[in-house]
Each structure stands twice: as structure tokens, then as C-alpha cells.
Amino acid sequence: MLGSDDWELKKKGLFNITRLAESHAEVLLCRLREICLAVTSEVTNLQSKVSCSAIITLGELFGILKKDMDSEADEIAGVLLPMVWNSPEFIQKAACQSLGMMVENVTPAQAMTALMDRGVKGWKTRRLNAHL
Would you state the pLDDT for residue 85? Predict the structure, then answer.
């Protein structure tokens, strides 16, 4: 569904990823890298509904899979941090919430590394990191 050109199918696919994580996390874990890459590629989708859904999906994956998402935190932070200052307000809010879910659910060292490695550029990012 994420490979479709239809934005409604993409949203449905993102929703299904979250539901699958909730009910059968073990299915996602064996292909977590591929799934996260597919979801992060939708974060910059020009259709804002798809972009916001992808951002929310990433936050939900952090909440559901917790420390299993450690290996993906750096890459995801690199995609979400620019959305905090280069997007409409509702996208910024979703990105901040998903980054908050990352901080709350991955190991503290991994969260700090992801935010510092990807977010050391710019005062807005430093302010967000201090908030998180």
C-alpha cells in the first residue's frame, strides 16, 4: 500500500503497520529496518495527510516496540528533526510528539545519541532537545 500513488491507500498502509505492531510485533521485528525506511520515506510526502500519518506511525512504533526501535532511532531522528522547523504547525506538533515517544521509549543513551548526532545543528533543534 505504501508503494501506491493513491494517498488514501498510503494512509491505510501506515495505519495497518501500527495495527500489525500492536497485535503481531514479532512479524515486524524481522523486517524492522525495511519497514522504518518505508515509513520514513513517507514523512516528506507532499500530501500533508500522508506525511502526518507517517510521523504519527513512527511515534506509535516507538511506543509499541520500545527498545527494539533503538537501532532505528538515529535515522528516524534525522528525518523528524527537520520537520520540526520546516513544516506547518500540525506537522511540527506531530514530529515533536513522535520525537518525545522516541525519547521515552528507546534507551536513554540511544535517544541522546540520536538527538545530538542529528540535532546539533541549529538553535531550534537545541531548544527542542532541551524540551524533550
Answer: 82
How far apart are the C-alpha atoms of 131 and 97, rounded to whole Å? 11
SS (H, E, C) 12-67: HHHHHHHHHHHHCHHHHHCCHHHHHHHHHHHHCCCCHHHHHHHHHHHHHHHHHHHH
| Three-class HEC string of 53-73 | HHHHHHHHHHHHHHHHHHHHH
Taking the mean position of all CA atoms in its chain, how far away is CA 5?
Answer: 21
d(CA 64, CA 26): 11
| pLDDT on residue 5 | 84
Q: Are 26 and 20 in contact (CB under 8 A)?
A: no
Q: What is the pTM of this model?
A: 0.88
Reading the block at residue 42, the C-alpha cell is 513517507
56 pLDDT above the threshold of 90 = yes
